Amino acid sequence: MTRSYRQVLLERDGQPLNQSQVQVLLRQALSQLQVYHDRQQVHGAVSLNTLHQVPHGCYLVPPTRTPTTGTPQQDVMALAQAAITLLTGYPPSPDWHWQAHCQIDAALVTLLEQMLAGRFDRAGQVLAVLVPEDLAPTEVTPMPTPMPPVAPSPTVPAVAPTTPSVSAPRVDRPTATSLPLILLGLGLGLGAVLASGGGLVWWLLWRDSEPQATRRETAATPTASAVTTPQVPVRGGGGQKVATAPASGLPETDGVQLVRSWLEAKKRVFAPPYDLDVAADFLTGPAWRDVSKPDGSVDWLRKNNTYYQYGNNRVGLKRVVKADASQLVLDLEIQEELNIYKNGRLRQRRNSRETYRFDLRLVGDTWKIYDRRSLN
Predict the structure, then answer these.
(1) Which is it for strands 327-342 and 306-323: parallel, antiparallel or unpaired?
(2) 200 in a domain, yes or no?
């Protein structure tokens, strides 16, 4: 009899698994995912619902239908989300620092962060990091993979070696007089290549030195004469106000204000009424998918009768990483109070002060949060 790890977590009343248990699950699930990825296929439905506990470990239930979209990289990312949920009792989300809520080695933290960020293209790459070469990668036999029948090779009768009657063709070797000429030609050719390569490298270094720095400084600092075109909706406590963005990009002050408004909007997204329409006003790309997808952070909160309660927050700009007409990347220091409730009871309380990198993108005529990751 098997049961899903979602059911296991519910039966434990949200109490997490330990590092050893999750490492075994990762090894076994990755070994089974490797079967798919080596066949140029994807699983497409990795979650706590398809990861099942069996007598000898973990079994990854095959998808009910052949996935039409998805990549092996997304399989690995989904497995990391499931592992972090089992380690902490809560799914990873853009709103809390999961590493502070589990006791695991720094190496496993780094590996899970890399998996979550999409740094691995397939399961075999993760196994090469997770499992030493002298250990078996899994205690569970992967799903049998049917192989197409291979026709037997025709038997070739043995032929006794015979002495050829015709001598091998003669190959002329360089003579003592031609060898110096060959070496001289090679030397002249190599010298020409090195000279032209050195000149190219010098020209690239000269071209990318001062002008590139000037271009970066110009892109990061909006000019006062820039024409204001896109409008950035910023929702705050007193209703909606509109900040205009110059054609050269979003001013850093408006980018900080967009993040501040998102921190306030989270109070309606990660607690009843779990308003995804509000989230859609602020998020796009990976940030939106993490919140809105099935088994994403909001869906998980609903299913587990859990919600986040946010208190006071402060946002401070540390530096501008990138700024152009359609993208603004900021390093922000965020102080935030967060209480986590499950079944109406307070389970965790924290007051954090962390640095995050926010990637803001222009979508149509509106700036939104494309991605966010911790720099701590």
Answers:
(1) antiparallel
(2) no
DSSP letter (8 states) at residue 96: S
In a domain, 46, yes or no: yes
Tens digit of pLDDT at every position of the chain (376 positions): 689 998 888 887 768 899 999 999 999 999 999 999 999 999 999 999 999 998 878 999 998 887 778 899 999 999 999 999 999 888 877 767 888 888 899 999 999 999 998 999 999 999 998 865 434 444 444 444 333 343 444 444 444 444 444 444 444 444 444 444 444 454 545 444 444 444 444 344 344 444 443 333 333 434 333 333 334 444 433 333 333 344 457 899 999 999 999 999 999 999 988 899 899 999 998 899 888 888 888 988 888 889 999 999 999 999 999 999 999 999 999 999 999 998 888 888 888 889 999 999 999 889 999 999 888 7
Residue 354 contacts residue 374 (beta carbons within 8 Å): yes
Structural domain includes residue 306: yes
Domain termination site, one of 130, 161, 193: 130
Domain harbouring 308, CATH code: 3.10.450
pTM: 0.48
Count of other CB atoms within 10 angstroms of residue 2? 11
Q: Which residue is it, tokens 């602020």?
A: 282
How far apart CA 43 and CA 62 sit, in angstroms, is 7
Order across the sheet with 366-374: list the strands.
306-323, 327-342, 345-363, 366-374
Domain harbouring 93, CATH code:
1.10.510.10
